[in-house]
Each structure stands twice: as C-alpha cells, then as structure tokens.
Amino acid sequence: MSAIQACAEAARTAARQLALFPNSVRSEALRRIAQAVREASGTLLAANREDVRLSEEKGRPAAFLDRLRLTPERIEQMAAGMEKVASLPDPLGETIAEWTRPNGLRIRQVRVPIGVIGFIYESRATVTCDAAALCLKSGNAVILRGGSESLGSNLVLADIFERELPAAGLPAASVQLLRSGSRDEVLELCACGGLVDVIIPRGGKGLVSTVVEHAKMPVLKHMDGICHTYVDETADFAKAIDIADDAKTQRPGVCNAMETLLVHRNIAADFLPRMAARLAARGVEIRACAESLPLMPGSLPATEEDWRTEYEDLILSVKTVGSLQEAIDHINRYGSHHSDAIITENAEHADAFQRGVDSACVYHNCSTRFSDGEEYGFGAEIGIGTDKLHARGPMGLRELTSYQYRVTGSGQVKDPARLA
Amino acid sequence: MSAIQACAEAARTAARQLALFPNSVRSEALRRIAQAVREASGTLLAANREDVRLSEEKGRPAAFLDRLRLTPERIEQMAAGMEKVASLPDPLGETIAEWTRPNGLRIRQVRVPIGVIGFIYESRATVTCDAAALCLKSGNAVILRGGSESLGSNLVLADIFERELPAAGLPAASVQLLRSGSRDEVLELCACGGLVDVIIPRGGKGLVSTVVEHAKMPVLKHMDGICHTYVDETADFAKAIDIADDAKTQRPGVCNAMETLLVHRNIAADFLPRMAARLAARGVEIRACAESLPLMPGSLPATEEDWRTEYEDLILSVKTVGSLQEAIDHINRYGSHHSDAIITENAEHADAFQRGVDSACVYHNCSTRFSDGEEYGFGAEIGIGTDKLHARGPMGLRELTSYQYRVTGSGQVKDPARLA
After folding, report:
1. Of A1, A266, B175, B179, which is most buried, counting CB atoms within 10 Å of its CB?
2. Which residues, numbered 332 to 391 in chain B, qualify as contacts with chain A under a Cβ-Cβ cut-off of 8 Å?
C-alpha cells in the first residue's frame, strides 16, 4: 500500500467518526485551530519567507509570489476566516424532504457529509485554512494537496491540525496534508477510488485535465472561465460600460472575469466608441470582429481562436451580433458554461437569455465577477463548478454534503401476500 | 468523427432545444409515443420473438429470457408506463431557492435539465421505454445503449421515437438508440466527454466497472447490492422473520435483496432456530458463522469471502454480533452502501443505526426491498446510486435534473469605488 493509500484509508476511518460528532465539537475544533494559527504566526511567517525565496529563485512571476506570500494581516484573516466558518449554521442533519407512503413507510431525506474529499489546489497557504475549515465544518475528512511552492508554510499548518484536532476530541486524520510535494502525489490520489469520494482540483487547466483524465472517483471542477457580457439593443449604456469595465478590469486574472463582449448590431455604432474609450483608459487591448474594428480605435482584428481564449489578462475580444439568439448561440458554442451576463432594460430579453444560456451562473444587469461563494452569501467557497452533476456554480458548505434516506416502518414487507 | 460522436453532437444540439419546450409539449410527445408503441404491438412482438430465439440458441438462462421476452400485456404496461410518466408533475423550472443579497442582487436557483444522458442497460425493451420517458420528461436528450440481445425489439422502438418526436414538434435526436450492438459502442460513448454530461450504466459488475474505468464524464451508478438486515436484541421476532424472509426470498436476484443477516448474540439462541425454519421452508441455503452454525440446522460454515459476496440467489450468510456497534461496523466494512435494515423495538438503537450506517437507504423495521423509485413515490426510476455525489438511492425525474443560478441586478459591479 502506498503512503497515499494509507492516508486515504485513515481519512475513510476518520470520516465515519467525524460524521457522528455534533456541530459544537466540529466548530470548537475550528476555533482552536484558528487560535493556534494566530499563535504560530512567527513560525508561519518564517516558513513562508523561505517558500517565497525559493519561488523567487525559480523566477516565478510577481502575481504568483503575491498569492504565495503571507503577512501578519493575512494570517489574521486566515484565523478570522476559520472562525467565521465555525459560526455558520450546521450544514448537516437537515431533513431535506420527508413524506409518508400509503403503506405507512415514513421516508426522510437527511443531509450527511460526503465522506472523504481530495482537494488539490494552488500554492496559497490561505486556501489550506479555508479548505480545512469548510471540510471540517461539513463533517468531511479532507486530504489536502497544495502547490509544492507553498509546502513549507503548509507543513506548519499541518502540524497545527495534527495537534489541535485530537486535542478537540476529533480524529487527527480528519485533515491530512500530502507532504512530498511531488507530482506523483496527484496521480496516486486520483487512483484512490473507493476511498476518496470526490476530488476537487483547483488551478491551471493542465492540472484539472490531468485529474479528470486519471480520477477513479467523481470530480467537481471548472476547467475554463470564458465569460461573456452581451449588451442588448435595449441596454442602458452607462450601466453597460460600468459593468463591462468591472467584469474585465477589476481583476482580469480570475475565472469569472469577462473575456468576450458581445454587442447588438443596432447599437454598435453608438455604443462601441464609448466602450472603447473606457477600455483604453484602463489599458485594455481589444481584439475586434470585422464589424466592431472600425468602431473601436486602436483595436486589433480578432481571429476565430479569440472566441475560445481565456486571456486572464487585460485583453478583450469584441463581436457584434444580429440578435439576442445569435448572442445565446455564440455563448453556448464558445463559452465555458461558467458565468455570462446580459445588459438589457427589456425583461423578456433577460428572461430568454437566462433560459437559453447553458451556464452555471447567468446574470442580468450586473457583473460576472459576482460568481463567488462569498458574494452568494455562502460564507466561503471551496470552488466553482461548471459541470451539471451535484453542484454547479459557487460551492460552499452545502455543496460539500450528500444525503441519505432514512426510512421507518412497522413491519412492512414488499409482498405481504406471500407471507400470509 | 465516429458515428457515436456524431450522435452525441446531435444529442447536444437537441438538448439545448428540448430544454426550452414546455412540459405540455414534452408530455404530449410521450403520449404519442405510447400510443404508437401500442399500435406497433404486432411488429414489436415479431422482432422480440426473433431476439428471444437468438438468445435461446446462445443458451441464455431462463431468467434472462424472461426479462427479454415481450408479451401483449408487457407492451401495454410499457405504453401505460410512458403515459404515467407523462402525467407526473414537471420537474423543470422549479425555483429551488431564492434570496436577495445586501447589495440588491436577487439570486434564484432554478431547476434545469442535465443535458445529454448516456444510458447503458440490460437486454430489456421495457427499460428502453422507461428511460426514454424519464429523460424526455426531464428535458434531457438521451443516448440509449441497450443490451445487444434486445437489439431487434429496440430498433422497432427507435423507429417509433424517430417518427413521433418530430411529429410532436421535438428534435428527433432527443432520443437516439445505438444500433450496432457492438461492445465498442460502450467505450466510444465513454469517450464523449464534453458532449455527454453523465453516463448511467445498469447491469453486471463487469459492465459498470468498464464504464467507471473509461468514462470521461460523471457516472451515476451502483456496483453491488450487498444488503444487510440486523436483528437487534430488542427485535420483535415475528416482524424480524417476516422482513428477513421478504428481503431474502421475494426476489433474490435483485440488488436490494438481503445477502447477510446479522443477529445480536443475546437473542441468537432463541431467534436463529426459528429464522432457520422459515428459511428452510423457502429453500434458502445458509452460510453461518461459527456461533450461528449450531443454531441453524442444515447450514454450512461461512468464510470471510461470504461477507463480501452478493449471491443474487437463494443463499444467505448469517453472523452473530456482540453489539449494535459491531453490526454497524460490519455493514460499513463489508457492505456496498446500498440498503441496510435494523429490526428493533428500541428507537434509540434505530436512530444510532441509521446515523452510523453509511448507506444510501437505511431502514428501520421494514424490508430492504423497498429501495426502488416506485416504492419511494417517484413514479418511476432510472436506477439506484450508491456514490455520494449528485444523487444517492433511487433516482427518478428530479435526480435527472441540474440547476442554474439566475441573478438579477440593476447595475451592480464588484468594486463600485473603482468606478466612482
């Protein structure tokens, strides 16, 4: 048995125990861990400085180093975030539905933990704490595999989990960190079918593809974030310009940022020059279709490939369409089923767009940047899903649960006549 | 592009259209198909006679031939079953949850179809109609791959779908049947990631394993049905004997039949001889643990392997346990997380058992044979799931749906300060 299989076996056992603890114990453990993280601030900062130094030596880009770096403020945020998750309502034990059958059987559908979650994520120690908090609060054991560049910081956190969980009365294997930092860990974790109930991969497309290719268990994921904003012919221009600006430039590197702007032909000549001026002021490079090109000074011609591209940068593709239906068809064809918006003052158009676009989150008159567990009021999120099974869109505590049918009878059998 | 990829592409297009039709159109199409099946009774019976003849030549067992065989009564049941599904409430469009955020965003979580379903199943033409009805009613396009022995009967049904769907105004590719009957079809369907949203495999363990191994999309399935009945020390013996009899002998070949009986040590000497007498009268072979063996005349000694075996036959393994916890641990270790029951007059024991057993359906004082969509009141079922993601236990119309977030704003952006 490999070290990772042994880890998965231990998680499986821990998960069965963890499922039976009340919310008070799970939440108290989280509060203990939060306090211990605060107290370990010095050790954590020192380990993180070494992580950052090694990544600098490797020539990692500034944005990467920024996500990797811990500060006293970020450590306080990590601890406070765990305390916030601890204070959220218990996601477990809820009776989702309950009914009685004509034969007297009472059927209850009750919310229970999923079991063992494998979480593979980027080099950010703050995510280690978020994930541990969400999984523990939802009664799941978790196997954490953070990016190898954050291993030093993560090991400090793993030591805290290992010490504080038993101190709070919970199995130490409720939260485990894979410690080798090697790529093989990901593949070995993917092979643990029957022990790990679900894998949630977060990070680059390459990583997510590898996990989908090899996982012997269900995967919750999103691959791309090719998000659209469609400016309808009835759009309020001021709203449209502000929303498109926010969706593109407020944080261009994230999955819910806009990559393509679609504009109804009837307003293109009025709207696009104004939009272009705002985008130019933000330093956005525009790749425009043949019709938009002359209306947007300084723009470059778009190719077919642009419609399929997630720039994750201050670059935007722009296309005019002849109808609402053409916008919907473009999004369903080229998009990634993540987050798309319509800007319109016509409620029927908004409705048709929301029904027609096959994406996890479909917005009317607001920015696609709202696709986020925090913004939905979930308190925190483990990720965003763009598949259709189990959970779609932002995933919080409830999306980390399953259900079980508990049926109560008084001697019922399937075929009473046979027994008479 | 392979023929099956082309089929999946067509299903994808059909699914987008199908999702927008109202319940009345989808249900009317089902009623048309049901009537056409009735009218094609003669052709269907002739094709089925040929299917049965070929399977007899191959030496298929009597139970297989019985499932394969159509009769005028069964054809009427197929048609009536589709009409029944047509009359069920629309599973689509329901607002599952709705709330408003402090910034004024109104978030609605709305039930939508999954999209394209791949359904792989046994050689039973009746299942072809059930699956087509459930998928169409839930707004999903479906690619059907029935067992090759029922291909002749299925082709008659596929011709009906192909004719009646466009006649009802729906895309013909909403319901497609794979027609080659070759094994490669299964693997090619599994390769259609991105086009097929989920595969539901039904049948032998070999088939389900193959699908899990190769599928590039989520799979909804159960692999085994190793179901237990635990007779607690406080059990009512008459109830326990009737329930165990029903769970084992009413239809021993199905997945929710009992395979192992666990009995509390304190009642074993009283209970087991009475249970053995009933089981002997039903012709059940008993494989007993060392302690149960002398209490059950005519039983054989059980081996470790027996606790892991799904007999699907009139064979039962029997084990005494020293406590409720030992019963729970045995079930979680050897069971298949499908359906398990406790027989007890003690409500606290029932509660502890239902919380402790990690199975899709956990019963108190009734037979495990109730794990079935019809018995749960779902109207029909596409299968039973034992994994934790998306759907667990019997899967009906609702389990064939996903959801989408539809968010309405009035110009909200993520960072208003940046725009001011």
Report:
1. B175
2. 332, 350, 354-356, 358-367, 369-370, 375-377, 387-390
